[in-house]
Design goal:
This protein is of the alpha+beta class and 136 residues long. It is built from five helices and five strands; from the N terminus they run αααβαββαββ. It has one domain: Alpha-Beta Plaits. The longest helix has 14 residues.
């Protein structure tokens, strides 16, 4: 009987559509790659926002690329120590103070610094100061 349940579970999993499995490029996977619970908790405690971005363009997987993206977000209003970058999933996140900058200004400022590298940013999701995950 236990074997039948195992076989049934395996057949069920095999029948799931591909979209139900981790694809590595969907919004949820990109957000998950740069999600850090401690960063979220600290941002919400200070009524700050946490933005998640998709990175578009040719992205060499180097320490220099990671640093350039992190520096661009930080220089554009991302709070130091809160920027996360995943080159594998082409995503990044940064906490920002909505009283000092907007999501659009953060994205545009960072994108301007990344343009010489042929990179653009797409805002994927935002966690607001109340801890609510939203579409931008």
């Amino acid at each position: 009987m236990c074997t039948r349940r195992l076989v049934a579970a395996a057949l069920f999993a095999a029948a799931l559509p591909a979209s139900a499995l981790a694809c590595g490029i969907c919004v949820e996977d990109r957000v998950a790659a740069v999600f850090d619970n401690a960063t979220v908790d600290a941002a919400v405690a200070k009524k700050r926002h946490l933005a998640f971005f998709g990175i578009e363009g040719s992205l060499p997987a180097t320490v220099e690329s990671r640093k350039a993206i992190a520096d661009a977000l930080q220089a554009s209003g991302g709070i130091k120590g809160t920027v996360r970058v995943s080159l594998e999933s082409a995503s990044a996140s940064a906490v920002f103070d909505p009283g000092k900058t907007s999501l659009a200004a953060l994205r545009e400022g960072a994108e301007g610094r990344l343009a010489p590298r042929g990179l653009t940013l797409t805002a994927l999701r935002v966690i607001d100061g109340g801890g609510v995950l939203k579409e931008p």
